[in-house]
Specification:
By secondary structure, the protein is α+β, with helices and mostly antiparallel strands. It has 3 helices and 5 strands; from the N terminus they run αβαββββα. Strand 4 (100-103) and strand 5 (106-110) form a beta hairpin.
Length: 136
């Protein structure tokens, strides 16, 4: 869980965060969460060029900077490693950001373009730039 610094400490509990988000919603509200998944095939390459911990930290750092600090969003991260369940596919991290800014008084403005069809392109572009910067 990643939160803006001005968020209530109560929101460190995901259930409390979701309950507050629901309470501050209204009938017909569509945009609830923006989900992006980042895949890491380099963690299972021979030899691996990235560890699972490095993949997690890259994603956490990106999410904290670009979503929490830059956009005031509450973010939940979840890493999946398919091989641990006997399945194929690279490890990946799901980044789930609530679709409204989180301010000192609660949830406010919607994300705008990030919560629309353009959101995937925006996130992919920012992610590529983040990875390129971290590779230097």
């Amino acid at each position: 869980m990643l939160l803006p610094s001005h968020a209530s400490y109560d929101y460190l509990d995901p259930e409390a965060l979701c309950r507050a988000y629901t309470q501050q919603a209204w009938d017909g509200m569509k945009d609830l969460v923006v989900i992006t998944s980042f895949r890491f095939p380099e963690t299972i390459a021979e030899p691996p060029s990235l560890s699972l911990q490095e993949a997690w930290e890259l994603t956490r750092g990106f999410s904290y900077q670009r979503l929490v600090l830059d956009r005031n969003l509450a973010v939940v991260l979840a890493m999946h490693v398919p091989a641990r369940a006997g399945k194929e596919g690279p490890p990946h991290v799901h980044v789930m950001a609530l679709a409204r800014e989180l301010g000192p008084c609660g949830f406010g403005a919607f994300l705008g373009p990030l919560a629309r069809d353009t959101g995937r392109e925006i996130m992919e572009s920012e992610w590529k730039a983040w990875r390129a910067d971290k590779a230097r």
